[in-house]
Amino acid sequence: MGEKPMTVVEMARMGGLARAKAHTRGEIRAWGKLGGRPSTLTVNQGRRIAEWTRHGIGQQTIAERLGVSVRTVGRYLKRPQGHRRSEAHL
Predict the structure, then answer these.
(1) What does DSSP assign to residue 37?
(2) Global pTM?
């Protein structure tokens, strides 16, 4: 591994088998943690989204407050009520 971490594009170009032969499991795991899809919303964030939405706060503002994308907020709100982790325990 060089000084600069491998980008997602570089990883995709190498292919899985070539990457596995050229680098250690630890290196590959470390690169995966740097990129990829972010973690899911926490239960507390979900509760905040639900509460702020009830108070009429827009998705853009909610996303900015939580540091997530507007799309993440929208996806959360599209879930059926019973399938939202934060509201299942209320």
Answers:
(1) S
(2) 0.51
CA distance 18 to 45: 39
Find all residues with CB under 8 Å of 17, minimum gap 6, and list them.
Answer: none
Each residue of 13-72: pLDDT tens digit?
777 666 677 778 787 777 666 665 556 788 899 999 999 999 999 999 999 999 888 999
Instruction: State the DSSP string of 47-88.
Output: HHHHHHHHTT--HHHHHHHHTS-HHHHHHHHHS-GGG-HHHH
Whole-number Å distance between alpha carbons of 35 and 17: 19
The residues, ordered by sequence, that sit 6+ positions from 60 with a Cβ below 8 Å of its Cβ are: 70
Q: List CB contacts of 82: < 8 A, sequence separation 6 or more.
A: 88
| 3-class secondary structure, 18 | helix
Q: Per-residue pLDDT averaged across 73-81, rounded?
A: 86
Contact 62, 76 (CB under 8 A): no
